[in-house]
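Fill in residues.
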């Protein structure tokens, strides 16, 4: 770099520091400052003024004694700037004394300076961008003074007293919007619950699918409201709610049918044995299913009591769930054969009819859910009566010996 190239940045920096110091600072220099100050080059990003003073002392080969210093943040990009002008600029807030004795620089507040009577406004800090919040199988409370952006809850709970600048999305969890809480975006609830206190506000839309809502009629909602099921004036129409229920029923029937096809195809003869056991003794299968459910839950709970038994309990729970689904689809196939067996002998047709009837039973109040539970227990009982599809074989007993032989 040429001498001229070095002189121009230094002159600009000196002029800038001088104008800042004259306008805002009261720095009194004491001691011997006759020695020409060295030039320094500094590059600092978001550093407190105290740390910047230490960096200046290190670059200028000064020994710095700092009794106290301003802690607000500064950013420096300097090249060959006079060290004393940099010192003035860094002390541009308040009244200070910089005393130099040889290579030792002492910086202290100027006690003799008259305090300023003008009100000082606190410098506005940089705006903090609200953060996104994800709650997974946990709980969270957003206080009155808290501000977040988007909130997503999966299998957990959130309590909102403050401000949500984005959207609230709840999957299989719960949300509580207090009277002081505000959601500036949309609120979407699927398979969970939400409570809104009087005064709570949602600027956007509120949509509840497969969940429950409490207090929506008392909330301040700026957009559209779709509740299913819903309370209050904004609940969904009968046609909308019926459409949601039909859609959910079709999805459930398709899910059970696919599981049943897999079980029948892969199970082969063992799957047929389960269906035969259910068809021959349906009431016994229901009773065995209830005993099997209670026994399995008890066995898993005992295994989970010990650290070694926890992996066994996890594997056992997965296996029991798979067998329960397989048994349930067998019960559905038997149910379908009872209704449409005279029309077709195809087991897959029986399964399809059973799935449709099972879903239709859920619409009937009172007796419908009981019939669904009986079907599931009958399927599980068929698995129990066949000793888990023949996978658990009884131990062969030796022939009994007569005492007189």
């Amino acid at each position: 770099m040429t001498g001229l190239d070095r002189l121009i940045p230094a002159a600009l920096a000196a002029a800038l520091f001088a104008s800042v110091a004259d306008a805002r600072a009261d720095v009194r220099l004491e001691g011997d400052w006759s020695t020409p100050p060295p030039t320094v080059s500094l590059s600092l990003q978001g550093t407190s003024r105290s740390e910047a003073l230490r960096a200046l002392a290190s670059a200028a080969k000064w020994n710095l004694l700092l009794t106290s210093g301003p802690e607000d943040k500064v950013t420096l990009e300097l090249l060959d700037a006079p060290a004393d002008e940099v010192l003035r600029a860094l002390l541009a807030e308040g009244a200070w004394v910089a005393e130099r004795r040889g290579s030792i620089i002492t910086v202290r507040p100027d006690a003799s300076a008259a305090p300023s009577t003008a009100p000082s406004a606190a410098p506005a800090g940089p705006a903090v961008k609200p953060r996104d919040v994800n709650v997974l199988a946990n709980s969270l409370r957003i206080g009155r003074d808290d501000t977040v952006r988007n909130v997503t809850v999966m299998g957990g709970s959130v309590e909102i007293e403050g401000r949500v600048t984005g959207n609230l999305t709840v999957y299989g969890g719960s949300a509580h919007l207090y009277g002081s809480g505000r959601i500036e975006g949309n609120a979407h609830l699927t398979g969970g619950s939400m409570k809104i206190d009087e005064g709570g506000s949602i600027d956007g839309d509120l949509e509840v699918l497969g969940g429950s809502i409490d207090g929506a009629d008392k909330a301040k909602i700026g957009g559209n409201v779709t509740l299913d099921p819903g309370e209050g004036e904004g609940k969904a129409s009968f046609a909308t709610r019926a459409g949601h229920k039909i859609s959910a029923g079709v999805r459930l029937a398709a899910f059970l049918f696919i599981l049943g096809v897999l079980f029948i195809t892969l199970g082969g003869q063992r799957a047929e044995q389960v269906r035969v056991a259910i068809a021959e003794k349906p009431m016994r299968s229901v009773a065995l299913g209830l005993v099997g459910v209670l026994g399995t839950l008890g066995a898993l709970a005992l295994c989970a009591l010990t650290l070694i038994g926890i992996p066994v309990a996890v594997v056992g729970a997965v296996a029991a769930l798979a067998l329960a689904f397989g048994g349930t689809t067998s019960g559905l196939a038997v149910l379908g054969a009872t209704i449409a067996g005279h029309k077709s002998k195809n087991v897959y047709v029986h399964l399809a009819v059973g799935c449709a009837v099972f879903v239709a039973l859920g619409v009937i109040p009172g007796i419908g859910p009981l019939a669904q539970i009986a079907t599931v227990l009958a399927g599980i009982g068929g698995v129990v009566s066949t000793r888990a599809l023949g996978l658990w074989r009884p131990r062969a007993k030796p022939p009994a010996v007569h005492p007189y032989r």
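DSSP finds nine helices and 22 strands in the chain.
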